[in-house]
Predict the structure of TRAP transporter solute receptor.
Amino acid sequence: MNKKIMALVLAALLALVSLAGCGSQGNEEKETGAAPTQLQNIKFLSGPTGTTWYSQASAFSGIAAKEGITVDVLSGSAVSNVIQIENGSADMGLTFSSYMPAMVEGKVVAKVGDKEYFKEPVKNVRTLCNTTTAGYALLVSAESPYKTIADLKDKPIKYVTYPVGFTARYVPEKMLEAAGITYDSIQKAGGKVDFVGKYQEACDILAKGQADVIAYTMAVNAQSAALAELESQREFRILAIGDDVINKVTSELPLVVATIPKGMHKSVTEDTKVLADITTWVVKADMPDETVAKILDSMLKNMDSMAQVGNSEFNGFTAKELIRLYGSGSQLPLHPAAEKYFKEKGAI
């Protein structure tokens, strides 16, 4: 691995585990030793500023303020957010459903030095709800001879992906493996696997004709700025994903099948199926029941604000949409108060 790639990997992994500070203040137990019945200050770990994760956390912060709860929204990542909640450094955060089996079973998804994250099962974190959708795609240029993921097998392709810790690496890697393709097999066929630190960089490489295939994660309900920039230079195509690949991947990871609609980008000339991750809100296991119920109820009653400020996908969300992965694959257990809330709403 050359120095540039090593630097990208180290930078990405350090970002995964950077701590955003100490645990929430103002939630201490009373002198009597009794736990608080409701949190008044919540530390909420989201995604980088400017992302839909940060936006939906910020939207909820505004809603919570009306309920007398102060929510401090901080940036983070799908892996580091869970680590911080597990360690007691935060109250709630966002992650992706694709990491759930690793959290439950104890499977390494990121390493920094001798530290292996999720090597041991996560014990102090509970599922709260499911929200927005992110689709995974393998992109090629519109003139590429490759039409399906299976077409890549035993071909000398140049594949561009990301450092360990990116879900845009993790899930597409599983998709390739389901089609019998690994990084080793790509190299044995005379191809090459390159790593970049930004989605825009991967798109730029494809635009210049310097890659055959790139991994990408995209919204399923709105255009991506990086893809709009890509197709201003070169139109792209999403490789078709066969039912065999879908079945193999979803048997391991709690993903869903989504559709990228025709015309969302000019390069998308037909409705296209993709595997999609679901943003999952998680909370510390000992979050008071009253706080959990208030979080869910206030969000459900203010879906218009969540859609306007957070993500338009929240439009029309009901309690059933907020728990749509319930019973699907291996997941962190629901917080008991969340389970009670959704049962009372008839959602589970």
The chain has a mean pLDDT of 88. The radius of gyration is 21 Å. Residues 70 and 342 are 24 Å apart (CA to CA). The first helix runs from residue 3 to 17.
